[in-house]
Write a structure and sequence with these properties.
Length: about 850
């Protein structure tokens, strides 16, 4: 064998060993993999058999469940509504082929984007949900497909349906896979769309289409279909008749997902979103339908539709049928017919109104969601008491309450003068008052009572937007959830709030700063007569801080101050009740007359009223006072008929003090307009700032007499002196202030009785003098300096030759000319009077060489 063959054989033997090792390793891996797969399959089979041994029969899908009727009552026992099972009463099965494709696509996009491909479960969704649940330490995400939702709602028992355990999820997933195997995707989706709950007592797409839009599902427009598709996520909360903004926001999510998954283009989605929706008018004989459906919403949130419509509940509500009927009557009358001296509000472009009446313990005794529930022309089924609208000045009491929390008082001065604030887009915000005028310094009491806009904006600037929004939320406002969106116009109602919430805010003021959520339900019992819940009589939580009761009283005292608000609203305005009964009330008007508000209270009741149009179209100069205000007063008058007149009693910790109405300081002996004001104890002003001053003035009194003023021209005048910040305002209101400047002195060198002030009498100007000594004579009535400089009217090079004071007629100084060359010189006399006024005289001289003569 040659050496070359020997080397080749050795190389082959060297490669064989590693190859054999790798081969054996590969075979071992394959065996382990096979074993692992077998074990995993066995585990899956065991888990499947364990959790599927007692699964419901998928054929049960679509079967109806029995229900027990419940009732909703008014507080006096009147039946308001019968809780009929929506599955049997509001459910119509339609073939899958009749359901619009856009509704199918929208449902898949928003509920289960992988529906057409997945086997009934979405493994990625499950893994994502498991990860989120592991992070949270509890079940926070389900990752359910449409098929899983279907089997959960139709096949699982109510108890198991609400179970969030892993066992239930596994059973649901197995059942979903089984259902997906036995039914086509079209069958599954068809059953789902006929069963899912859309809110407003509507199960299935046909019931939802009829309930919301009064048409068959196959007649839905793209906008209507995509709105419905988003409701199953939270049908109670997103009910567009109560929360149109929330439903539209969910529709936006649905459309965005349809764009993402290729069902629509962006332009198509935007056109669908912009489509105007017209909700159906379903005639009903229900008493107070808006209140009933509001109560149903609360019940659904607490108990779910299963218990609500199948549990035989007996629900006693707070509604008072008498006052509900009166509130409806009065609101409808003023919109359609008007009243004595008033034309119907609809003739001025107002078509709708909402009313809320709250007892002191926050019970809703009346809720008028529209003047006609069955009128589609005004979107009568939309509950305007729950619709976010701009409240105008009706938000101001919260602004001022926040300022009182931070140390302001009803006597704090706020300047109603022009002010501008730079906006982020390069423009400026310049608030204006309702009357387009400026009113100077205004006490907080006057600013709030008269609804002055500029002081309110300045107050919000002081309080801060975040602090104001925080207080508003504590007092019951459920909107205004992004303070970064708002600027200082929020003080004037540039954010949207609900009438029910704002009425509850005023009720908190009435209750000394203690807030209670509006109460609609007094008692709930089940079919067996067992009490499930009862309203309590707790006074509510204090939301205005340690001195909240006193602050709330001060706001009440201001809002009920008829004398204070006459400054802008005049006598016998709409906020004054005819019998002289105290009422704390505030009006509000949004921009372009789109919303008219009046909210106020007596010790007996709190009433909130809104007037406007559901489509947000503007009215014809319908403000809070001449729109909602007339309904508010009419209802207040009716409610208080025969009731004793009660006053708002001050709590402990309130003190009275006499203040100066113009400056807000303590009223001293010289205050021209002392008034009584109320304060949180310990916060009243302790010093006065208006004083008397007697001074000498000259001539017409516009200047101060000085030391050089002739005595016969001086007279003594007594002034009522205001602080410097109020000087211009006082003068503008006919209150003369002492002059701030001295009368001008006579011209330099001019004579006056008793002598001049600054006068060089020798040498006279334009004369020639000779050295070596030149004596300067004259008058200097004050501290003086005598200077010399070369040239005419020299501005520099001055040399002081003498200083002194108070020479009436004598030698002022001596000019020693020894070192000065012949030529022109200017002699300057400067005299500073006792008032600090500088008077100057200059004399031009010519210096010649010294001779035998000497000028003296």
């Amino acid at each position: 064998m040659t050496p070359e063959k020997t080397r080749s054989s050795t190389a082959r033997r060297g490669l064989i060993a590693p190859v054999r090792f790798l081969w054996r390793l590969f075979l071992a891996f394959v065996k382990l993999t096979i074993v692992g797969v077998i074990l995993a399959a066995i585990a899956i089979i065991l888990v499947y058999r364990h959790y599927s041994r007692d699964l419901p029969d998928p054929a049960q899908i679509g079967r109806h469940r029995p229900a027990e009727t419940g009732y909703i009552y008014a507080r006096d026992g009147t039946v308001l509504y019968e809780l009929v099972d929506p599955l049997s009463g509001r459910r119509t099965v339609v073939p899958f082929e009749r359901i619009p494709r856009i509704l199918i696509d929208a449902t898949v996009a928003v509920e289960d984007a992988g529906f057409w491909e997945n086997p009934g479960v979405d493994l990625r969704g499950i893994l994502r949900a498991l990860f989120l649940n592991y992070q949270a330490g509890e079940v926070v995400s389900g990752g359910s497909t449409i098929t899983q939702q279907l089997v959960r709602n139709v096949l699982l028992s109510p108890d198991e349906r609400d179970d969030l355990s892993l066992d239930r999820k596994l059973r649901e997933a197995i059942l979903a896979v089984e259902v997906s195997r036995r039914y086509s995707k079209e069958q599954i989706l068809g059953i789902y769309l006929n069963e899912v709950y859309y809110g407003n007592r509507a199960y299935g797409v046909e019931a939802a289409a009829q309930s919301y839009f009064g048409k068959h599902v196959w007649e839905l427009s793209p906008g209507e279909a995509t709105l419905l598709a988003g409701l199953p996520q939270s049908p109670t909360t997103l009910n567009p008749l109560h929360n149109l903004a929330g439903a539209k926001q969910r529709q936006r999510v649905t459309l965005d997902l349809m764009v993402k998954h290729g069902y629509l283009t962006e332009s198509e989605a935007q056109a669908i979103f912009n489509e105007r929706l017209q909700f159906a008018s379903t005639a009903t004989g229900i008493i107070a339908p808006h209140f009933v459906f509001y109560t149903l919403r609360l019940l659904e949130e607490r108990y779910g539709p299963e218990t609500l419509y199948r549990g035989g509940l007996r629900v006693v509500t707070t509604l008072d049928p008498l006052w509900q009927a009166e509130a409806e009557r009065i609101a409808r009358q003023w919109i359609r017919e008007g009243g004595p001296g008033y034309t119907p509000l609809r003739e001025r472009g107002a078509t709708n109104a909402g009313v809320v009446m709250l007892t002191p313990d926050a019970q809703i005794i009346a809720m008028v969601g529209s003047i006609d529930y069955n009128d589609p022309a005004i979107d009568g089924q939309v509950n305007v008491t729950l619709a976010p609208r701009q409240p105008g000045s009706a938000l101001k009491p919260i602004v001022y309450a926040a300022a009182l929390q931070r140390g302001w008082t009803p006597a704090t001065i706020i300047w109603d003068t022009p002010v501008t604030y730079p906006a982020g887009d390069g423009t400026v915000y310049a608030p204006r008052n309702y009357d387009n005028a400026f009113h100077g310094p205004q006490r907080l009491r006057m600013a709030l009572a008269n609804s002055l806009n500029i002081p309110a904006v300045r107050t919000l600037e002081y309080v801060g937007i975040e602090a104001f929004v925080s207080l508003a939320h504590r007092m019951g406002i459920t909107t205004l959830n992004d303070p970064r969106r708002y600027g200082l116009p929020l003080a004037l109602g540039a954010g949207e709030v609900r009438l029910l919430d704002l009425t509850a805010v005023y009720n908190a003021f009435r209750n000394g700063g203690r807030y209670r959520s509006p109460v609609a339900i007094l008692k709930i019992t089940n079919a067996r007569g067992e009490t499930l819940e009862m309203t309590d009589d707790t006074p509510g939580r204090q939301v205005l801080g340690d001195q909240g009761e006193q602050i709330a009283y001060l706001i009440t005292d201001i809002l009920s101050d008829n004398t204070a608000r006459q400054y802008m609203f005049g006598r016998n305005n709409i906020m004054e009740l005819p019998d002289g009964r105290p009422a704390a009330v505030k009006t509000g008007t949004s921009n372009e007359w789109r919303d008219s508000w009046t909210v106020g209270y007596t010790p007996d009741i709190t009433v909130g009223v809104w007037v406007g149009n559901n489509d947000n179209s503007p009215m014809q100069e319908v403000a809070g006072s001449n729109g909602a205000g007339v309904i508010w007063r009419a209802l207040m008058e009716r409610y208080h008929e025969g009731r004793p007149i009660l006053a708002f009693e001050p709590p402990d910790g309130i003190q009275d003090a006499m203040i100066c109405a113009d400056t807000g300081a303590l009223a001293g002996d010289h205050c021209p307009r002392p008034v009584n004001e109320r304060f949180v104890a310990g916060t009243a002003p302790r010093t006065s700032d208006v004083t008397l001053l007697t001074i000498g003035v000259s001539d017409d009194g516009t200047c101060l007499a000085a030391s050089y003023t002739p005595p016969e021209r001086i007279r003594q005048v007594t002034f009522v002196v205001y602080p410097s910040a109020f000087r211009a305002w006082a003068e503008a209101h006919g209150i003369p202030q002492p002059p701030e400047r001295y009368c001008p002195p006579p011209e330099a060198g001019a004579g006056r009785e008793g002598g001049a002030i600054a006068q060089i009498t020798q040498p006279m100007t334009n004369t020639t003098v000779r050295g070596p000594l030149v004596y300067i004579r004259g008058v200097a009535l004050g501290i003086y300096a005598l200077d010399i400089a070369r040239g005419q009217a020299a501005d520099t090079g001055w040399r002081t030759i003498a200083r002194g004071e108070a020479i009436r007629d004598g030698i002022l100084g001596i000019w020693q000319t020894g070192e000065d060359t012949p030529g022109e010189y200017t002699l300057r006399l400067r005299v500073t009077t006792g008032e600090g006024i500088l008077i100057e005289q200059r004399v031009l001289l010519r210096l010649e060489p010294a001779g035998t003569d000497e000028t003296r």
